[in-house]
Amino acid sequence: MRIFALGGAGKICRESALDLVRFGTFDQLTIGDIHLNAAKEVAEWLNHPNVNFAFIDIADKGKATELLSKYDLVIDGTTISLNGESTECIANAGCHGINLNGFGEEYKFNDIFKANGKVMVPGFGMTPGTTNMMAVFACDQFEKVNSVRVSHGAYRPIAFSGSITETTIYEYDPALEGRTVFENGKFIQVPPFARPLEIELPQPYGKSTQYIIPHSETFTLAKYLENKGVELIEVRGTWPKENMDLISALYNYGFMNNQKISLNGHEFGIMEAIGEYLQKSEKGNKTELFGYSLHVVVEGVKNGHLVRQTLTHSHPASDGTYPEWAGLRAYTRNVGIPMSIAAQLILSGRYQGNGALFPEFVFSPTVYFEELAKREIYIHIFEEILN
User: Fold this and answer.
1) Is 1 exposed, middle or buried (0-12, 13-18, 19+ CB in 10 A)?
2) H or E segment at 272?
3) Last residue of a domain, one of 121, 140, 167
4) Are 96 and 215 members of one domain?
5) 266-269 and 305-314 strand pairing
6) Do residues 117 and 171 both lie within one domain?
7) Do 32 and 83 belong to one domain?
8) Which of 16, 127, 175, 310 is the 20 to 30 A CA-CA neighbour of 32?
9) Is 230 found in the same domain as 266?
10) Could you list the pLDDT tens digit for every one of the 387 residues in the chain?
């Protein structure tokens, strides 16, 4: 099997590649990136005889597609704004594909993937991805699902990479149509900082106020649960407190509209300038607590009773006790490892369907959780009967 890591020099995708080296089976793994020296550095870091590196620019779709056509599967670590272009290349190359973001551009290539007998799974990291599997695990046990509340805390610096900065600007864009909740059969658009709710995450993260965010689980779970009578699906998230305070201030002062301004003859979006500053600043690359914390609550009818099932997850500490999880890597490993696991499940035939498909319809949560546990990432389940 031949695997191409697109955007493989990035801090998250390189963790996917490392997991493939440690747990996967392949004939070739290519670290592909527009930054060739960075791709070479990652390939050398992986230190495996079947790993190499290559230059790729998906803006040159002809050359990119030709290169990818030599591979069986592409793990796509590119940014949200590039996922439409990258998925087009993967589809036309005739490969399986999987990416981290899942914001919707990928599904328009469904027919190509289906005709090629390949699967594309948009959005398979921690959230979306692992959260989808947690919700499916719980919901499959219920005769009727009343509500699903997905929450997470992503504890990382606000601007340690360009893609993370882009995600911040995207998720808190006041005009974003995709920031919705599913309620009583309808998708309802909400503004940034809507529907605050206190969520108690496992230690060391603790309690925080979380707000609705524009994540794909709202849409994918609504489709998966359309025969379970679901009345409410909400997806919330938070970053470290200082990050949330900054975004709140920028939103209150109108910066999150990303208005175009002109300065010394150059035109740019104000948030693009702020993002550029944060990436180069010490504060933009620091935070006190690193890691990821998932929290999924499903309420509904199980065996005739009203039941609430709460699922959380844990991973090795970021305090240096586990060197490979120290600092920022407690965040990047959490996001990168799920994409690698999903790639391995596809290549080993442990998946269902062809086409561009929602994660809920592709993988078995139980099988996926077993793979997570091999990496010391654990899913915890607590259930209570409400009547």
Assistant:
1) middle
2) helix 270-280
3) 121
4) no
5) unpaired
6) no
7) yes
8) 127
9) yes
10) 999 999 999 999 999 999 999 999 999 999 999 999 999 999 999 999 999 999 999 999 999 999 999 999 999 999 988 999 999 999 999 999 999 998 889 999 999 999 999 999 999 999 999 999 999 999 999 999 999 999 999 999 998 888 888 888 889 999 999 999 999 999 999 999 999 999 999 999 999 999 999 999 999 999 999 999 999 999 999 999 999 999 999 999 999 999 999 988 889 999 989 999 999 999 899 999 999 999 999 999 999 999 999 999 999 999 999 999 999 999 999 999 999 999 999 999 999 999 999 999 999 999 999 999 999 999 999 999 998
H-only helix segments in 69-207: 83-93, 110-115, 130-139, 162-171
What region does 358 belong to: left with phi over 0, alpha with psi -120 to 50, or beta? beta
Is the bond preceding 365 in cis, omega lying within 30 degrees of 0? no
Q: What whole-number distance in Å separates Cα of residue 343 and Cα of residue 37?
A: 25
Q: How far is residue 299's CA from residue 301's CA, in Å, rounded to a whole number?
A: 7
Residue with structure tokens 């009727």?
A: 144
Domain count for the chain: 2
- CATH code, domain with 260: 3.30.360.10
Nearest to 20 by CA among 341, 350, 376, 364: 341
- The sign of the dihedral angle between the CA atoms of 17, 381, 223, 104 is negative
Residues 246 and 285 in one domain: yes
* Kind plus residue range of the DSSP H or E element containing 151: strand 144-155
**Residue among 12, 76, 200, 223 nearest 135 (CA):** 223
* Dist CA 200 CA 228 (whole Å): 27
How big is the chain by its Cα radius of gyration, in Å? Answer: 20
- Phi first, then psi: give them for residue 111, nearest 5 degrees: -65, -35
Q: Does residue 363 fall inside a structural domain?
A: no
Same domain for 173 and 211? yes
Tokens encoding 360: 């809920």
CA dist 103 → 123, 219, 254, 308 (Å): 7, 10, 24, 29
- Quick check: 30 and 9 in contact, CB under 8 A? no
Within a 13 Å sphere around the CA of 271, how many CA atoms are in the beta-carbon half?
A: 24
Give yes or no: residues 56 and 135 share one domain.
Answer: no
Amino acid code (one letter) for 24: G
Range of the domain at 175: 130-331+368-385
